[in-house]
Amino acid sequence: MAETGNDASRKDWDTYFMDIAYMVSTRSRCPRRHVGAVLVQGKKLLGTAYNGAPMGVPDCSDAGCMIAEEIEVNITDGVEQVVRKQRCIRTIHAEQNLLLFTDRANREGSTVYVTDQPCWTCANMLANSGVVEIVYHRSYPKDSVKVYSLMEQKGIVFRQLQSYAPPEQAQMAVIP
């Protein structure tokens, strides 16, 4: 969604929408990772969401994280590798909230900008949501191979903004 034109001081559309996703992420009260997501149809902003506990329930900053550990066995070239994943199960992910609070009709043919590469669960949900493109900034290596494969199978454009720099007021240290 690159900008055309000669105005060097004007942000391109990818930067503009990713900046919004990062600013939305500042609403998160998660001490491990602030994630924001934005739904865009063409150049029109249709919805925003961030990660956090369900409405009316104490969030992680008040009640502590609910960490669940998952163990996954990956086999690559006949070599078995055990991957440990820690996930907070108190939190609804930004992508999940975005899907909960937007209409399917608005998602058809749209783009999701999300600060972080979707996890496997969110990728599955987005793959069935009607979106045709997912743009993210920070990688999430624990699920990366599976997620890329799923997006390729579904024909969803899936790309990382590697040279992007978030707005200063939205930066935070991320716990892997």
TrEMBL record:
SUPFAM superfamilies: Cytidine deaminase-like. Residues 12-158 form the CMP/dCMP-type deaminase domain. GO terms for biological process: pyrimidine nucleotide metabolic process. It holds the Pfam family dCMP_cyt_deam_1. PROSITE patterns: CYT_DCMP_DEAMINASES_1, CYT_DCMP_DEAMINASES_2. InterPro entries: APOBEC/CMP_deaminase_Zn-bd, CMP_dCMP_dom, Cytidine_deaminase-like, dCMP_deaminase, dCMP_deaminase-rel, Deoxycytidylate_deaminase_dom. Its cofactor is Zn(2+). It comes from the Bacteria. One of its GO terms (cellular component) is cytoplasm. Belongs to the cytidine and deoxycytidylate deaminase family. This is CMP deaminase.
